[in-house]
Amino acid sequence: MQRGKFITIDGVEGAGKSTQIDFICSYLAKKNINVILTREPGGTKLGEKIRELLLSIDTKLMDNDTELLLMFAARNEHIKTKIIPALKRGDWVLSDRFTDASYAYQGGGRGLSIERITFLERWVLQDFSPDVTLLLDVPVALGMLRIKSRIRKDRIELETNDFFNRVRDGYIKRSKQFPERIKLIDASQTLKETSQQIKVILQVL
Ligand code: T5A
Q1: What atom in ligand 1 is closest to the CA of residue 11?
Q2: Which of 40, 124, 149, 159 is the most buried (most CB within 10 A)?
Q3: What pLDDT is stored for residue 119 in this prediction?
Q4: Residue 63: which domain range?
Q5: pLDDT by residue (tens digit) across 60-75?
Q6: Are strands 6-11 and 182-186 parallel, antiparallel or unpaired?
């Protein structure tokens, strides 16, 4: 049985991940590829409970280290009980966000030490990594404009534009560090143009 491919999609708020996920799923379905759609934080029963804690505005004053550890606790469960078993079955897995988000949000946004994040990454992932990461890049102001009409914002969405600019810088830094895996996509283009950039990447996977 051939191992499935692991694709992750990431980016700042309002970059258009959810919208492009629909495109990717239908593209892969046309190729008769069975894809499991999942997300982080979350993706498992336990992980979804951790997601609630992480995103609820009731936990506004969460310590930054607690936030990082909860992200990795959910990720550990996600990888071991869902992602790796699916890949071993030969299914493809598409995750809405993954470890790069911890580097961008907790590293870039919160200013936590990159060494500490790398330590957790090695502990939880060992040598496991996505086959490809689609990084949807959009100026923060445009992303915010796209989600402006949302009535209820989660704990992280309530952060400042300065925070999200640091997150964006964190993602760009990651893409320069891992240019083979992380594909930078200009998501400020129209939906169709953005999908076209993604299609070109999927065609050679
Ligand atoms: N987090 C996560 C961490 O801090 N650390 C971690 O390790 C991890 C894994 C999770 C939160 O957790 C944080 C990051 C996040 O803050 P989430 O569920 O991923 O949250 O949710 P969001 O990032 O908030 O995702 P959004 O749903 O807000 O953004 P999307 O999915 O990028 O945007 P989408 O597709 O809903 O699009 C937003 C709007 O823009 C329009 C769409 O139609 C929609 O209305 N749009 C476009 N309009 C014009 N042109 C385009 N090209 C467009 N693309 C989308």
Answers
A1: 32
A2: 40
A3: 98
A4: 6-202
A5: 889 999 999 999 999 9
A6: unpaired
In degrees to the nearest 10, what's the CA dihedral of 21, 23, 26, 32? -80
Q: What is the CATH number of the domain that holds 160?
A: 3.40.50.300
Is residue 1 situated within a structural domain? no
* CA 30 to ligand 1 center in whole angstroms: 25
pTM as predicted: 0.97
Task: Determine which residue's CA is closest to atom 25 belonging to ligand 1.
Answer: 13
Q: Residue 95: CB within 6 Å of ligand 1?
A: no
Q: Is 47 in the pocket of ligand 1 (CB under 6 A)?
A: no
Does residue 23 form part of some domain?
Answer: yes
In the predicted model, what is the mean pLDDT of the chain? 97
Rounded distance from Cα 96 to ligand 1 centre (Å): 9
Segment 152-178, tens digit of pLDDT: 889 999 999 999 999 999 999 999 999
Residue pair 38/87 in contact by the 8 Å Cβ criterion: no
**How far from 93 is each of 37, 69, 116, 192, CA to CA, in Å?**
6, 24, 27, 23
Residue nearest to atom 43 of ligand 1 (CA): 19
Binding-site residue set for ATP: 11-18
Give the count of domains, the chain: 1
Residue 172 lies in a domain: yes
152 contact partners, CB below 8 Å, separation of at least 6: none
Element (H or E) spanning 49, and its range? helix 45-55
The residue whose C-alpha atom lies closest to atom 34 belonging to ligand 1 is: 16
